[in-house]
Specification:
Largest sheet: none
Number of strands: 0
Helix content: 55-70%
Structural class: mainly alpha
Radius of gyration: 15 Å
Length: 71
């Protein structure tokens, strides 16, 4: 069993702060979001390694997101 990275209470707090009137989170949303977060971490680590670094940086995340949108 793997540990969840996303926290339901924090997501609910973000939703509340957004003032959009969306209050509920389904279980499958949490699962899917957690999968995406894990994928993002691994992809950022790969990019850091390709660039000769052992540290993941914010620019790794932005580059991955940009590449996902650009496709």
């Amino acid at each position: 069993e793997t540990k969840m990275l996303t926290v339901r209470t924090q997501i609910k707090e973000i939703l509340k702060d957004s003032e959009l009137g969306v209050d509920n989170i389904s279980g499958d949303f949490i699962d899917r979001l957690d999968e995406k977060v894990k994928d993002l971490i691994v992809d950022a680590a790969k990019r850091a390694k390709e660039n000769g670094r052992r540290t993941i940086m914010g620019k790794d995340v932005w580059m991955i997101i940009w590449l996902m949108v650009d496709v």
